[in-house]
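Crash report, auto-generated. Payload:
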Amino acid sequence: MQIDWLAFTPVPALLGGIMLGIAATLYILLHGRILGISGIISGLLSPKSGDVNLRLILALGILSAPFWAALLFDIHTKSVIDADWPAIVIAGLLVGFGANYGSGCTSGHGICGLSRLSPRSLVATLTFMGAGFLMVFVIRHVLGL
Amino acid sequence: MRRHFNLYSQYFIGVLFGFGLIISGMSNPQKILNFLDVTGNWDPSLIFAMGGAVIVGLGGFYLASKQTKGFFGSALHIPGRRDISRPLVMGSLIFGAGWGVAGFCPGPAIVSLGAGNMKALVFVLAMLAGMAICNRFFTGQK
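Recovered output after restart:
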């Protein structure tokens, strides 16, 4: 194991992580719900639930975060996507299907689930981390893409 | 009044969550892939982001466990299931595989879309399609 010391940013990562934790805490205490992004987005697809407006407004908040970060703090969102277009489509399909089928993603299982010591979320988090490690190993070191 | 405050609060929490992803660097797929590349030139930053979030969240969910309602009067929706089901594991495997292909999970994809990234737009549309397929054919099996 070799650490990329130039890319490693523990302090901003910890600070950003604390903000994620505060957002999840506010969401459960104020709104009584788990801040799981895949579940919130997926609910937009079945409008019968009646809370589409609330879900949409939360999603708009996330969507507009780069705008506010640039305007208020002069922080410009970095998003470098190396995957090509077909890979993007495949990745999107897998992520959307898998998050729904597995009842959660990095926020719902990873952040909220681990925070509430849920055994299901611990299994889910270890499983998707493992699958992610394996996929990157195959793509970068076996296929050499 | 409370209704409006509820909407503002939803929006604010969304922005705060987005800030967390931007500041921690987790909205950048390249950084995610460099975390998932444990046998390569590894960037362990995600552990610190997840750690910070969980340390705060442990307190938050402990407080929530003492409540019966959210501040805005809604019932507390905390999942009660404890069974390790096949869909939980299969879904997480599929999700993790997709995460490893592009370095995107749902939250960061929405932030990147908000930053004007066209690949994020295509990813989000494909993700919605994947969710719709699951909702259409596999709901009730979870």
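Post-recovery validation: Chain B touches chain A through 121 residues (CB under 8 Å).
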